[in-house]
Amino acid sequence: MMKTVYNFAAGPAVLPQPVLQQVQDELLSYRQTGMSVMEISHRSALFQDIIDRAEAGLRRLMAIPDNYKVLFLQGGASLQFHAVPLNLATTGKVAFVDTGNWSKKAKAEADKLPHVTTTVLASSQAQQNRVIPTVPAVTDHYDYVHITTNNTIEGTTFFDLPAVGDNILVGDMSSNILAQPYRVADFGLIYAGAQKNIGPAGLTVVIVRDDLIGKVPNLPAMLDYQLQADKGSLYNTPPVFAIYTAGLVFDWLEQLGGVPAMTQINQAKAKILYDYLDQSDLFTAPVAPAYRSLTNIPFVTGNADLDAQFIDAATKAGLYNLKGHRLVGGMRASLYNAMPIAGVTTLVDFMKHFEQEVR
Ligand code: PMP
């Protein structure tokens, strides 16, 4: 019998057990073909059915309007930092809300395009990224305004979207897509790396309003949203295994009641950990309550040696990957959709025990 472990990694991250079980059951012979899903042609009817069903599943889960394309791409969210301005920055004026490391990286990739000028509308840097900054009403015209809906490293979330006027909002939803509700129609484009709430690494989902694409000629084929849309994400060989697994994750989430049901579960999980942190004499959660992420929860003891001791002891107890990002130190528990409530209660019990021991 394998010992129960809980994986709190920020990504690649925990996947639902029933999905892994199904992957295992189907691995050697997908639908009686005698081949694994990794070995079938991406031009086969069998794979077409897999990608069609994955797309339909995501469309239902996020209520994606018909005038939005769903693209299954590669290169991670990091490639989208560049692809988004390449496709959407038709006048070259782009705005960002700076909420930490990933939004800075997104801006830096846009800045590499010679025709693009970026503006920072608001920043949380002076508050150590422990808040989501207030964005003044946007009156200027930009090709789009970019936000990181959930800041994986800093543990903050946009629960309310900024008022961008007539501008288009672009959201990097890598770490809270499908974990809490957003209205797709509030965005012109949403992108997310799959390896947190969707499936294995190697797949990136882009959801884009169809009138925003196809405006820039001669883009590199792999970065051309219009071409990828026209080819049904099959311009080249797609990450077949990741798309297949994502489809199973979408089915799993739908059976659980979709995003509304998952939001309630995620709120309950996060509350267990934040409630404990807020009354603890040892651990603290640095993020201001109004902006606290449901999916990535940083915490510290205030003493780097004690942090290291905690992480070591937690690992020995089967509570894995609790080390905070190297930029911020301390600890971080990522509570994505596939993390069961038992994982959080086990973590909190362990923290209580640790707190008693060191006092
Ligand atoms: N944006 C956010 C919010 C992230 O959390 C990450 C990865 N942790 C990235 C972008 C980069 O994603 P990728 O590794 O898929 O390029």
Helix and strand topology:
Blueprint: E1 6-7, H1 17-27, H2 45-62, E2 68-73, H3 76-88, E3 93-98, H4 101-111, E4 117-123, E5 144-148, E6 150-151, E7 156-157, E8 169-172, E9 189-193, E10 204-209, H5 225-230, H6 240-255, H7 258-279, E11 296-299, H8 304-316, E12 319-320, E13 331-334, H9 341-358
Bound molecules: 4'-deoxy-4'-aminopyridoxal-5'-phosphate.
List its traits:
359 residues; alpha/beta; Aspartate Aminotransferase, domain 2; Aspartate Aminotransferase, domain 1; 2 domains; seven-stranded mixed β-sheet; 9 helices; 13 strands; binds 4'-deoxy-4'-aminopyridoxal-5'-phosphate; O-phospho-L-serine:2-oxoglutarate aminotransferase activity; transferase; EC 2.6.1.52; PyrdxlP-dep_Trfase_small
Give an overview of the whole structure:
The protein is of the alpha/beta class and 359 residues long. The chain folds into 2 domains: 238 residues, Type I PLP-dependent aspartate aminotransferase-like (Major domain) (Aspartate Aminotransferase, domain 2, 3-Layer(aba) Sandwich), CATH 3.40.640.10; 101 residues, Alpha-Beta Complex (Aspartate Aminotransferase, domain 1), CATH 3.90.1150. The protein is built from 9 helices and 13 strands. A 7-stranded mixed beta sheet has the order 2-10-9-8-5-3-4. Strands 1-12 form a two-stranded parallel ribbon. Strands 6-7 form a two-stranded antiparallel ribbon. The two termini are 35 Å apart. The model has no long low-confidence stretch (mean pLDDT 97). The chain binds 4'-deoxy-4'-aminopyridoxal-5'-phosphate (PMP). The site of 4'-deoxy-4'-aminopyridoxal-5'-phosphate has 12 residues, from helix 3. 4'-deoxy-4'-aminopyridoxal-5'-phosphate binds next to helix 3.
